[in-house]
Amino acid sequence: MGKRVCIVFNCRNGLECMKKQNKENGIKNKSLFRAPKDKKLLDRWTANLGQLKRPLTEHSFVCEEHFSIEDVFRSNDVLLSDGTVHRTERIIPKLRQNAIPIVGKNYSEKKSNAEHESFVADTANLISEGYDDISIEIPSLFDNVTPQRNDQDCEQDVEYTENRL
Fold it and tell me: Looking at the whole model, is its pTM more than 0.70?
């Protein structure tokens, strides 16, 4: 069974050297998501990802950096009837069903806390207008932390991995 390494060309997420560097720097590793089994969705992933280390299969992995922030759920948020939001952090992030990766790294703009709070307030207004049993999942906001990568440390690991693929 292969290792969980991002299949996107020049992406090092999942490599042992990156895991080690992240641990030393106190940075959480990027989440990896398995490619879909559905052939049509798999083809859309392939078209969007561009250059890959090898052909994309249902056994391949793509890291969270190649998805929009809205596609990765880090918490389960439930809007209660009194307008408050009950948030439960997920131990393992979840990819939105039918999410399509974006080309290259995640360059989408991050939503500000104000935009997020505005969304929650708008939903609370729906409840006050008679929608009592609304339960929705809202993706959490998180900081875009990019680890400092030492290319020399990973050079051998990348070369080894690409030769094996």
Answer: no
